[in-house]
Amino acid sequence: MDPRLAKALRAAGYKYEEIKDGVAKLFFNLTDGRSHLVFVASRSQKVGPYETRKIWATAMKTQDLLDSKIANRLLMENDKQPFGTWELVKWPDGYRVLFVVAVPADLPPDQLKTVIQIVLGRADSMEKELTGEDRF
What we know:
Elements: H1 3-11, E1 17-18, E2 24-29, E3 35-40, E4 45-47, E5 50-62, H2 68-80, E6 85-91, E7 94-104, H3 109-131
Antiparallel strand pairs: 1-2, 2-3, 3-5, 4-5, 5-7, 6-7
């Protein structure tokens, strides 16, 4: 795992499990009895002078591509958000709807915590809206 990420997560007060490719998996119990997972990529990406890493959470899993009503709902939601996007990602067992934010790879712990909380809230809220379930 990228030592900068490990240090920032610890400084933000998070306990995490390191999974495949050094991804940090964080588990949250929410106040309404729900729970949710958030993932933070250890591997960063460089584009010119910028180095970023992704933070994401799943809102929905499906075997098929999204129907137009859900796809349009997510696209319209993207327009309302100051940062982060809803993405449909191919997974070995189907597709996942993820809320994803790319952040600077050296994001300070307090800002990392803020972004993780935003990703957590948006993904769990959308999961509840789209599925009524608590799977992720």
